Amino acid sequence: MIQAFRRIIITVLFLFICTPASQAAQDQSTSSNDAPIDVVGKVADHHSLDIAYMHIPLPRILFVGGSAIPHWYWTTEAAVESGNFAEENGALVTSGGSAITLDMSITSHLMFFWLAIILTLWLTISMARRYRQGIGRNVEPQGWFQNLFEITFVFVRDEIARDNIPDDKYEKFIPYLFAVFVAITFMNLFGLLPWGATATADITVTAILALFTFLITQWNGSKDHWRHVFVFPGVPPIMRIILTPIEILGLFTKPLALAVRLFANMLSGKIMIIIILGLIFIFAEGFGNFAGIGVSFLTVPLTVALYVLKAFVGILQAYIFTLLSAVFIGMAAEEHEHHEEGIEAHA
Amino acid sequence: MGLLGAGIGAGIAAIGAGIGIGLIGKGAVESIARQPEASGDIRGAMILTAALIEGVALIGAIVCILIALGIGQ
After folding, report:
1. Closest residue, chain A, to B63 (C-alpha)
2. Which of A91, A106, A121 delimits the end of a domain?
3. Which tens digits make up the pLDDT trace of A24-83?
4. d(Cα A24, Cα A279) in Å, to the nearest integer?
5. Gap from A257 CA to chain B (nearest CA, Å)
6. Parallel/antiparallel/unpaired status of strands A54-57 and A60-64
7. Using 50, 70 and 90 to split pLDDT, how confident is the model at B73?
8. At what angle do helices A174-190 and A289-333 cross, to 10 degrees?
9. A182 or A141, higher pLDDT
């Protein structure tokens, strides 16, 4: 009882500490334009981290004009001060003639991506060490940590991998599926923390994840998979002219849809919360402060409900990404034993 | 005009996805009612199919966001 009370007190204190900072960040971002709330600025990638009252600039790494040696600066300001670059509409451009060929700058989304990967690595390595000691193999799993992640691992192995990938091959893909599941869950849930950013609300992050799935799918494609792409058993030859391009296109649309699904879900959840909270500011600006206070009684509980929904959607989308990866890998790795001409379904 | 188009497009995408996911939910609930012991498998298939439909709808929604924000003009 006392412990629960203490936890609530700490949570409330934490919220009070967090709120002014997020408000300050909002004032800063609204000063640049006239809109009461900057929706795009909240979901976009930044070259700095705003954590716990601190504004941490992140390094800029820029490749200019085809040279292999990058320009390296610790902050965006340092890049501008060096004279090689100028800031234009919030983006860096070179002061010389040559254009920036590749921008490898470290951004806030990348930091959260790394954080998720470090957490995943720490989790898997510490779990593996426990199992090597015999805890969980010879005796029961001990502690909430091992129990929680053993459930996750068994879920990924049984419900995702074994159900969708042929029996003799599924074990090879469990490490990838588990890592993707846990890392995406972490990245999705980081967006719900104060000062956090949803790394998966960035198409580049999800595209890289989908690219991994695509490469693994194609590397492990069986002979039958490729035959179904290029030559169709039991289909009139003239139909192959139509079907082969469709199948080749289908190879690429699957990972594309995978990337866009995760990206759009996370982005839309984030935009929805910002817009519903932003109604307070819009009403306050349009009809006076009392209207804003009145609307806040409606929108704040709604936002709480949306937060719960978003936490659920974050885990669900990680599950769907992993499940569809497993389905695609399973479809490619499957070997058809009996070829029934004509009625063979190909995916 | 672009904003109007984006709004209408997002609405149509939502209608399509709503009909599709509604039909999936209908089918899943009916089959769970008929065979409660198979509810686990049905739920998995339901989520998978809903995700496939959702992907298409979200691609439409993303196009609408891009139009509304004026990216690519």
Report:
1. A264
2. A106
3. 444 444 444 556 667 777 777 888 887 777 788 888 887 777 677 777 788 877 877 777
4. 18
5. 6
6. unpaired
7. low
8. 170
9. A182
Same domain, A287 and A312: yes
Q: What SS3 state is found at A35?
A: coil
Q: CA B6 to CA A234: how far, in whole Å?
A: 44
Instruction: Say which of A159, A260, A320 has its CB closest to residue B62.
Output: A260
Please indicate if any CB of chain A lies within 8 Å of the CB of B61: yes
Whether residue A281 sits in one domain with residue A176:
yes
By C-alpha distance, the chain B residue nearest A259 is B55
Determine, yes or no, domain membership for A29.
no
Q: Which residues, in sequence order, are CB contacts of A71 under 8 Å at separation 6+?
A: A60, A61, A62, A63, A64, A79, A82, A84, A85
Count Cβ–Cβ pairs < 8 Å, chain A vs chain B. 39
Contact: B51, A263; criterion CB under 8 Å: no
Mean pLDDT, chain A, rounded, equals 81
User: Would A258 be classed as within a structural domain?
Assistant: yes
CATH architecture of B2-69: Up-down Bundle (1.20)
The reported pTM is 0.81
Q: Do B58 and A264 touch (CB under 8 A)?
A: yes
Q: Specify burial of residue A222 (Cβ count, 10 A radius: 0-12, 13-18, 19+).
A: middle
CB contact under 8 A, A257 and B61: no
Structure ipTM over 0.85, yes or no: no
Let me know whether A182 and A295 are in one domain. yes
Best residue of A155, A202, A258, A261 to probe chain B, by most B CBs closer than 10 Å: A261
